[in-house]
Write a structure and sequence with these properties.
The complex is a heterodimer of chains A (about 850) and B (about 220). Chain A is of the alpha+beta class and about 850 residues long. Chain A is built from 23 helices and 22 strands. Helix content of chain A is about 55%, strand content about 15%. In chain A, the strands form two sheets. Chain A has a six-stranded mixed barrel. In chain A, strands 13-15-20-17-19-18 form a six-stranded mixed beta barrel. The longest helix of chain A has about 55 residues. The two termini of chain A are about 35 Å apart. Chain B has about 220 residues and is of the alpha/beta class. In chain B, strand 9 and strand 10 form a beta hairpin. Helices cover about 35% and strands about 30% of the residues of chain B. In chain B, about 50% of the residues are buried. In chain B, the strands form two sheets. Chain B has a six-stranded mixed beta sheet with strand order 6-7-8-3-9-10. Chain B has a four-stranded antiparallel beta sheet with strand order 2-1-4-5. Classes of the chains: A alpha+beta (about 850), B alpha/beta (about 220). At the A-B interface, helix 1, helix 7 and helix 8 of A face helix 1, helix 2 and helix 3 of B.
Chain lengths: ~850, ~220
Amino acid sequence: MRTVRFALRLLGREWRSGELGVLLLALIVAVGALSGVGFLVSRIRAAVALQASAILAADLRVESPRPIPAADFTAAAHRGLRSAYAIGMLSVVFHGERSQLTDLYAVSAGYPLRGRVLVAQRPFAPGTAIAGRPASGVVWADSRLIAALGAAVGSRLTIGAGTFTIGRVLISRPDQASTFTGLVPDLVMNAADVARTQLVQPGSRVRYSALFAGTPRRVRAFRSWLQAHLGTGERLRTLADASRQIHGALERAERFLNLAALAAVLLCAAAVAMAARRYVTRHLDTVALLKTLGATRRSVLGLAIAQLTAIGLLTATVGCALGALTQLWLVHALRGVLAAGGLPAPSLAPAAIGFTTALALLGGFALPPLLQLTRTPAVRVLRRDLEPPRAAMLLAFGPAAALLVLLIYWIVGETGLFLRLAIGLAGFIALLSAAGWALVRLASRLRGTVGIAWRYGLANLGRRRTDSVVQVVAFGTGIMALALLGILRTDLTGGWRRTLPADLPNYFFINIPPASRAGFAAFLRAQGAQPQRMLPLLRGRLTAIDGRPVESIHFPDPRGERFATREQNLTWSATLGSANRLLAGRWWSASEYGQPLVSVSSEFMRWLGLHLGEQLTFDVAGDHFTVRIASVRKVRWDSFKPNFFLVFAPGLLEKQTGTYLTSAYLTPRQARSLAQVAHRFPSVSIFDIDNLLRDVRAMLEKAILAVQSVFIFTLLAGLTVLLAAVQASSEQRRYESALLRTLGASRATVTQGVLAEFAALGALSGLIGAAGASAAAWYLTREVLNLPYRFNVPACLIAIIGGAVLVAASGWIATRATLNQPPLAALREGAQ
Amino acid sequence: MRECVLKAEHLTKTVDSPAGPLTIVHEVSVEIAAAETLAVIGPSGAGKSTLLALLAGLDLPTRGRVVLAGSDLTALDEDGRARVRGQHVGFVFQAFHLIPTLTALENVALPLELAGLPGAGAQARAALEHVGLAQRAGHYPRQLSGGEQQRVALARAFVRRPAVLFADEPTGNLDAQTGANIIERLFALNAEAGTTLILVTHDHALAARCARTLRMEAGRIL
C-alpha cells in the first residue's frame, strides 16, 4: 500500500512535468478505437438478440409462394400448438395523387405468436405494444409510408381495389426482415381484407406464412412432422436459421470495424514503445539514485508496476468514455441504416476489452523496457556512461510481438483468415516501409538543391531515418484508408450513374396478368412511355441435375446450395437480349422452339458446378420439366433491364400460369399517371428505381461515413506516433535550435526548418497513402464493383496536401516549446 | 580507539578495456573509525571515485572485501547492499543528483519514504530548514541555483542521520564562494551528527580540513 501511495505521488509529479502526455494519449486513442467499435457492435448484437426471439413472430414458420395447406394447421392444433398465418406482397399504396411501393402484410387473428407489435399515434414516435390486429377496413402504416404519402392517422389509403383507413402508425412488428430496415415501407392489415384488394391473382407474387408456437417439446415434435410433410417450394424457418444470416452480416461488419480499430491499436503500440523507450532513458539516473539511497530492485519494480497499472486504469477509463462518445456518433451517423426505435444500451464487455487492451499494451510494450530500467547499476550516480545490461531481443520484443499476434487472432477469430491476414499485413508493412525508406532517402538527397530552412528540415528527416520511416508508415496507412473510402464513395455513387444512359428504364412493373398484358403495354404507350420487352415470369424449383436429386448433391459454394433449395424466377425468350452475351453453346433458332432447352447464366453455372449439355429438372407448379443446357450467357446485371439466370426456349412453359414483367422510362410528369395503375391493374406492382437507387446511395454513404469515422482513429494514432517521435528527439532539437540561433539563425529560419521537415514527412505519407489508395480503388472498382475506374486526381491532391498541412501543423505545435527556449538555457542543458 | 565503522581489505577492481584487463584499484586496505573524517585525494584517473563506489557498496570489487556497519557488502546481493546503504549511508555528489520531477522537500523526504519511516514530511522540512532552504521547499531543482541544489542534497544526505557520509567532489560544480559555504555546512552537519565522513576531492585545502588523508595514484594508496 505504501509503495502504491508513493508510486502514485511520483506519477502525479511526472504527469505535471508533461512527461506522460504521449503515453497517455496513445493508450487513450487505442482504447477509444477498440471500445468505440465494441460498444456499437454490442448494441447492434443486443438488438439482434432481442429480435432473434421474436424475429419469426413464432417458434416455427413455414413460408411458401402458395397458400399453406389447411392440413398443416390441423396437425398443429392436434399437437397442442397455437397457429396463425400471414400473407405478404409488394404493391403500390395511394393517398390521393401520391403513391408509394409498400410491403403489405395481412395477418390472421392471433398474430404475432411471439414478440410484440408496436404502434403509435404519430409517425416516428416511441411505440407502445398493442394486442390484436387491425380491424377490417383499417390498416397500420409505418412512419416512412405515412411520411412518403403525406398522410396521417385517419387518412384514407387506396390499396388495389379497396380503400382503407389508417388506424395507427406501425412502429415495428417482430418479423420485419432484419435489424437493418428494408428499403420498402411496411403496412399491416387484416387478412380478411386481402380479397377486397383483388391483389392476389393467379401467378401474383405473394408470400404465404404459417406461424406456429408452443412448448419446446411440442415444437420439436411438430418440426419433425413438418419436415416430413413439406410441400414443393415450402420452406421451414426455425429460430436458428432466422438469426444466422443477420449474425453472418454482423460478424463481417464487426470484423472489418475491429480491424480498422486494430490498425489504430498497432500504431498506438508503436507510440507506447517509443514513449516507454524515452521514459527509460530519462529515468536511468533516477533509478540509480533511488538504489543508491537504499531502494531494492524489487521496490523499484513495484513502483514501476504500480505506476503502469495506474496509467492503464486511468487511460482505459478515459478511453472507454471516448469509445462511448464515438459509439454515440457512429449510431448518429448510421441513423436510417440501423433499425428505428432505438438500440438497446451497450454492454459493459467492450469496457473490459478496453481495460485489457490498455494493460496489455503497457505490459507488452512498456513493461519490458521498465524491467530493463530496474537493472540500472547504482554506480551510475558516479559514472553516467553505465547503462543497464541490454536484454536479449526475444525478451525485449517477444512479449510485445506475442501480444500483437494474439490480439489480431482474437479479433479475426479464424485460423485460415488469420494466417492470410498476418502474411498480408506483414507484406503490406514491409512494402510501405520500403517505400517510406526510399522516399526518405530521396528527400534527404534533394537537400543540396533547396534553401537553408528546407535543407535543415530534410537533413533532419534523413538523420532520424528509422523514426521517419515509422511515421511515414503510420500516417501513410491512415491517409490511405481515408482516401480509399473517399474514392470508393465517389465511384460507387457517381460511377454507377455514369454507366447508365439518361433514358434508362426507371420503373419496373411486375405481376402483370397474362390477360392484361396487351392492355398494360397500351396503357404505358398512351402515357407517352415506351415499354421494354414484356417478359414472362414463372416460379419453379430445380429438383435434379442429370437425374440426381439436388438434395443428394453437395455444393461447395453456399450460393449454389441456396439456388438449389429456393424457388427460381424462370422465363422464356426468342431473343438473347441486349445485356446478354453468349459464352458457350448456341442460342436457339425458330425450328428449336418447343424443345426442352435452357440457357443458363455464367454465375449459376459456376455456383452449381454445371456443364454445358447437362440435364436440369424443374418443378413448375407441380409439373416436372427436364431440359438440356443449350448455352451459357454472361449477363450485365447492372444494365437495369430485366434479366434472368434461367431462360427457356419458347413453346415449352407457355401452358403454365405465370405473370409478365416489363420496364419503362417515365418522366416525372408521366409518372403521376401511375396512380391510375392501381385502379386499372390492381395486381401490378411498381418498382421506382430512382427512389431505390437514392435510398441505396444514402445508406451506403452513411455506412462509409461510419467506417471513415473509425479510420480517424488511425490518423489520431499516427499523430501519437509523431508526438512520441518528437518527444524522443526534443532534447536534441532544443540543443540544435539553440546552437543554430547562437550561430545567428533567426527564429523564423529555425521554425521554417521544422515546418519543412514535418511538411515533407506529411507529403511523403500523403504520397504513399494516395498511391496505395488509388491502386486499391483501381482493383476494387474494376474487379469487385464492375465499374470503370477513373483516376481520382482531387482525392490524391487532398491526400498529399492534407497530409503535409496536418503533419506540419502537428509537428510545429509539438516542437514549439523547444524552439521558444532561450538559447543559453538550452545549451547549458545540452552540455550537461 | 573508537569503534571501526568501515573496513576494506585488499580491495582490487579490474575491468576489461580494449587494451586488455585494467586494474583501477589495487590492493587497498583501510579501516575507518566512527565519526572520523577522511579525505581521499589524488589526480584525475587515480581511482578515487571507484574506491568510493566500492566502499559504499555501489559496485563490487574483483577481489577483497568491505565491511560497512557490521555488514560484509561483498557477501550481499544487490538488494542487500541497497538495504545497508538505505540504513547507514548518506551521499553528496558533484552533480547533485536531485530528481527533477520532485520538489526540494520531496527530494529530501525520499530516503525516509523509501525506508517507509513515518513523519517523512516533517523531518524533511526540518532538514531543509537546517540548511536554510525552508522557503524553497516547494521549488523544483530547475528553479534552484547550483548552491541551493547542493544544499538540498546535503539535507537529503543527513535527514536519516547516517553512520557514514560519502561525498564525491561536492564542490566540483560550484564557484569558489558557494563551494566554501557548502563545505562549511557539510562539516558543521557532520560534527553535529557525529557522522563518519569520507570525502573524495582533488582540492588539497579541503582535504586538509579532514582528520586523515589518503593519497591515491594509479589505483594504489601511497
